[in-house]
Structures are given as structure tokens and as C-alpha cells.
């Protein structure tokens, strides 16, 4: 089992920045990739960004490309999501996810690829 705990959410104005963190514990050696997903009120969960654990290959949703950056710290079993130029439509609960399944980087853009999920952290962007 892998436990994931997110932090770093909050309230920010349009154009502001936030950095989310997700710490993994437990059987972290089994992880092949980690990702960030978000769910806005009344909407389906959507993919935000993913990173492979060994090669550090990244994928982003088109809606966040150029604004968000996912990174990892393997030594501390942590991933980050640096969010800049935030917009009101970025308001959502952001959850990190971990996958123990092998696959190409594109595979990890789907929620079906993930076995472990964090509780989520709220990000609110005011206009």
C-alpha cells in the first residue's frame, strides 16, 4: 500500500501562484508514476499533470500547459505542482495519485492508471 498526503492548497487571486506538494509513504518503491488530478464543483475529475518516477517524463493537460509544472523529489518521495498565472477556472479540489503499473507517459493521463489517491487539497482562485 502507498499513502499519499497533499498540502499547499489555499485561496489566491487571479494571476497568483501556489505550489502543491504530495508526500508518498509506504511501498513507494512500487511506484512507476504519479500525477495530479482535479475536480471542480459539479464537474468530472480531470487530469492535470503526470510524471514518471524513474525517467521524470511529464505530461500536462492542454488547459494548464505553460502555467503549471510538475516535478519530483525521489529521495523524499514527494511530487510538486507549481501553479502560476492561476485563473478562476482552476478552482477545484486537487488530488495526487500514484501508479504502480507499467506504461508509457501518455498512459498516466488517465485516472484508470492509478491505484492510490490522496484526500485532496482545495485550491480557490478569486476573480
Can you describe this structure?
By secondary structure, this protein is an all-beta fold. 0% of the residues lie in helices and 50% in strands. It contains no helices and 11 strands. It has strands at 2-7, 10-13, 18-26, 33-39, 46-52, 58-60, 68-73, 78-83, 92-99, 116-117, 121-126. Strands 2, 4, 5, 6, 9, 10 and 11 form a 7-stranded mixed β-sheet that branches. A 4-stranded antiparallel β-sheet has the order 1-3-8-7, with no helix packed on it. Strand 4 (33-39) and strand 5 (46-52) form a beta hairpin. The chain is globular. The protein starts with a strand and ends with a strand.
Features:
4-stranded antiparallel sheet, 7-stranded mixed sheet, 127 residues, globular, mainly beta, 11 strands
In short, what is this structure?
With 127 residues, this protein is mainly beta.
What is the element layout, followed by pairings?
Blueprint: E1 2-7, E2 10-13, E3 18-26, E4 33-39, E5 46-52, E6 58-60, E7 68-73, E8 78-83, E9 92-99, E10 116-117, E11 121-126
Parallel strand pairs: 2-11
Antiparallel strand pairs: 1-3, 3-8, 4-5, 4-9, 5-6, 7-8, 9-10, 9-11
* Category by helix and strand content: mainly beta
Total number of helices = 0
User: Could you estimate the helical fraction of the residues in percent?
Assistant: under 10%
Percent range for β-strand residues? over 45%
Distance between the termini: 40 Å
The residue ranges in which pLDDT falls below 50 over 5 or more consecutive positions are none
Total strand count, please? 11
- What is Rg? 13 Å
Compressed to H and E, one letter per element, the order equals EEEEEEEEEEE
What form results from the Cα inertia axes?
globular
Amino acid at each position: 500500500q502507498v499513502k499519499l498526503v497533499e498540502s499547499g492548497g489555499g485561496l489566491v487571486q487571479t494571476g497568483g501562484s501556489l505550489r502543491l506538494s504530495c508526500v508518498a509513504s509506504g511501498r513507494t518503491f512500487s511506484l512507476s508514476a504519479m500525477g495530479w488530478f482535479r475536480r471542480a464543483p459539479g464537474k468530472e475529475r480531470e487530469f492535470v499533470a503526470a510524471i514518471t518516477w524513474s525517467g521524470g517524463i511529464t505530461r500536462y493537460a492542454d488547459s494548464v500547459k505553460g502555467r503549471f509544472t510538475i516535478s519530483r523529489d525521489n529521495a523524499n518521495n514527494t511530487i510538486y505542482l507549481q501553479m502560476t498565472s492561476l485563473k478562476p477556472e482552476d478552482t477545484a479540489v486537487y488530488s495526487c495519485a500514484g501508479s504502480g503499473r507499467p506504461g508509457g507517459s501518455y498512459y498516466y493521463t488517465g485516472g484508470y492508471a492509478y491505484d492510490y489517491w490522496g484526500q485532496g487539497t482545495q485550491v480557490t482562485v478569486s476573480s
